[in-house]
Each structure stands twice: as C-alpha cells, then as structure tokens.
Amino acid sequence: MTTPSALAKPLPHVTPENREFWEGCKQGLLKIPKCGVCSRTFFPPSARCPHCLSAAVQWTTASGRGIVYTFTVVRRAPSVAFQKDVPYVIGSIELAEGVRIPSRVVGCPPEAVKVGMPVTAQFQKESDEITVPLFAPISR
Amino acid sequence: MTARGNTAIVGFAEYPPLRDPGEVTLDHILMNVAAGAISDAGLKRQDIDGLLAGTPVAAQGFMWPSLAASMLHLTPAYLDNCDIGGAAAGGMVTRAAAAIQAGLCHTVLCVTSDVVNTATFHAATRGRHVERAPLEAVYGWAGANAHYALLAQRHFYEYGTTNRHLAKIAVDQRTNACQNPTALFGDRPLTIQEVLDSPLICDPLHRYDCVRPCTGGAAFIVTTAERARALRKPPVYVLGYGEGFANHDMHSREQLTTTSVAVSAPKAMQMAGVSPRDIKVAELYDCFTITVLVAIEDAGFCRKGDGGPFVAAHDLSFKGDFPVNTHGGQLSFGQPGLAGGMSQVVEAARQVRHEAGSRQVKDCDVAYVQCSGGSALSNSVSLVLADRV
Questions:
Q1: What value does the mean pLDDT take over residues B30-54?
Q2: Is the ipTM of this complex over 0.90?
Q3: CB contact under 8 A, B203 and A104
Q4: Would you give the DSSP letter of residue B131?
Q5: Of A94, A98, B195, B332, which has the fewest Cβ atoms less than 10 A away?
Q6: Alpha helices in B117-162 (DSSP H)
Q7: Which residue in B139, B154, B252 is closest to A70 by CB distance?
C-alpha cells in the first residue's frame, strides 16, 4: 500500500462489515444495513445491529431519496486535499428509510441549500475501491 | 447516600495561555501548575494521594497519568486519566469525589497540560477524525467546526435562533475578558457587528463564534470537606454533579438540539438541592457560542428554544444580571487543550472564593459549571459549587 500524499483525500477502508455498502456504491446503489431480527436499519455498517446486538445483519437497497436534516458550508478547507473544493456543503442527510448519513450536498450553489430540502443520491468515484454517495436537490 | 458537600476544591493554578508554545514543554507546564495548585491550597506534595491527569490532545498519551505521577514523585493510591474530551475538567471533579467517597484516597490533584498551536491542534484532531470517522472525513469534514455548525444550523431552523444571538454571547464574554490579564483576547471590547462581519468558518459560525486552540495547562485539588475546612482559604464545596452522554456520531442521534446537558444538569442541581434561580454565576464550556446557548437552555435557565432571546435580553458580563464565563470564556481566554474546560472550573472556584478581583460577581455563593466535550457534546458533566454546605 502506497503512503497517501497530502493532496489525496482520506479514503475509508473496506472492511468485512462495510464491503456490501461500498460494492453497492460502485454499482450506483445505496445499500443500508438492516437487522434480520429486529428489522431496524442502522448506519454506519457494523458487525452487529446496534439496536438489538443481533449478528443477523442484512442489507436493503435504499431509494436514494432523503432530506437535508442539517448542513454547513465549509469555507476553510480542513486540509490541502479539499482546498480546491471550497466552498462546499456537508451535512447530515436523513434518508427516507430512517437513517441519517453524512454526505455532501452538490448540484446547487451553497446559498441555495436549506434544512428540509429534498435530495437524491448520486455517486462519485474516488478510487477503484471507493465510490461515495453525494446528494443533490431533486429537480422539479 | 448522597455525596453532596463531602468534598471541596481547595487549590488551583492556571498557566497563562500561549498562542505558540515556543520552547515550552508539556512537562514544564504540568510541573508548574501542579506546584501552583499545591501551594495555593497550602498543602505539601506529600499530602496528595490521588492523581487525575488529562491526556494531552496532541501528544503520545498512553500511560500519561503514571508519567505525570512520576514527574511529581507522587505515589498515588488512585490515578487515572479522564477521557471525555473537553468535559474532562468536570469529569475529574466527579471522579475525584467518587474516589474519595469510596475511601480510595483523600486528596486528588487534577491536572492538564497541552502544547499546541492552531496548526498542530487541527493536525492532531484531523488524524483522529480520519481514523474514527472515515465516512465524514472523505467529504472534507471540518472537525469540530463542522459538527457545531451543524448543531447551530439545526437550532436556527427549529427555534429561529440567529447569528445576532450568538454574537451577543461572544461580545459579553469579551467584556469579561477585558478584566482578565491572562486572556489571549482581552485587549479591547468586541461589537456585535464585528462578530457578524468576521469571516465565516463553517456556516453559520463566524470566526468570533469559534475558539482559538493554544498552549497551556491548569490544576486543581479536590479533598474531603473536613480537610478543606482545616486549610487557610475558604473551601469551594462540591454540592452536586451529574454526567450525560449522547452518541459520538451525531448522525446516529434521534435529534440534535437538546443535548447531553439536559441529562447532566438536572442531576447536578438535584444532588445539590438547588434550582437555576439559585445560581449566581454560570461558567459554561464555550468551544463555540452555540455551545453556550444550548447549555443555558438545557441546564434550565430558560425554556428550550428561548436561548437566543434570553441572551439578547440579559447582560452576560460579570456585572450583569446573568453572569456567564466571567473570565472571558475560552472564546476570549483561549482554549489551551483540556485546560480550556479547566478554566470554567477554576473561574467558578475563584468566584465562589471571592478572589475574582475586578470581575468579581457580587454575593457569589453558588456557581454552576458546565463541562462539555467530545463530538458536539457527546459528553457532559455539570457541577454545582458553593461556599457552604
């Protein structure tokens, strides 16, 4: 494994617990863990359901639709890797399936982003292993 | 069996914050604040039989309490760190009180030291964030600035809180800092317009809504009420304490705007047998202005959601009708690592002892301390301190 350069984004590692999520993203699908015993969805992926601690972790393909639960506009990049993206919007996206996930809001000027705004997932390849979901306003 | 009033803070010392450490080392700070607190208490090193040492935020911290004990040639019967982020200062009070109550020790030195400037602080937190929150880091998350901005944005949405409300907190605390010679930012008052005009860091937080990481440290000593009464300075009794927790991953929380303070504050006040009305000064952890605002609400000083109008309607300065962060808060004093939170405990003790000089709050017999930390208030410790039991 090569040492990541300062210019490279910090990419998540694929693990046995989250492999299905990252494979889904590569196929343009938002796969969310769902417990086979208590039926609740959860995020992030885990070896056990955090609600009931069952090991029966299954997966459901989410619709990709959600709303912006909250957000911020980053005006000072946290590292050199994100310098060219500034200003950009990050937030907590509440999926229709009931979990919230961190992501970026793209496809509109930062000033247009509002709490409660309906969004839908799109996907961006970062590396051979990692494709990340982003969220954009649903066009009318 | 209640622990109310069984322990007291009897000595404290702070290292004046430094923007840049220069040649100052962790060990230098630790030795000086420890010696200062022991001297302030009128105790000797040999009287200390317990140690709580906060892990330095930007340095190798494994076995830190043992290293700290060794520097001081202590032989503690009880030692530990307090690993709850910025809430460590309050956590040390409760853990010291619990250890004393359990008969493990009688006199606990609580100490933090941190050698950072803005760059090294952010590098350290970024490294941890990438490792523990990869699903945020990949998007260019901006650490605590982003987490608290998300909280503020949601609070604005749910309650109509505004940037002017937040700015008022920064302005009144700066008035307090102008009476504190050790504050990093205490040279001149601030205006609301200056706060609003300062650059946005993470919307809706402007620069003056955010704390400045710096170098420093602090120490205080907790002992039994009986031993406290035998010492030369008035004891600062620990009347009540409580702890609260919220999921460290803020996306896993059911909601954001009611925080762990809503759990810890009632516990502390109930143990102390006081209500918010009895509090003469509130020293509230202030990594950001929004952190103060939600603490005022969740500790019961006003109704949930009314924090904005409340701070607008009250004078939060040391001479006002609702004194908050009379030392300037971390926003104006600086955040010397974990000694940021220590500053709230130390200032409360100073006020209760009537040693606060030109910023002394009149008739300050009961103080409330809010110690907040972790990821957007994942950790909360609330304290009630008083000049009598």
A1: 98
A2: yes
A3: no
A4: H
A5: A98
A6: 118-132, 134-137, 143-159
A7: B154
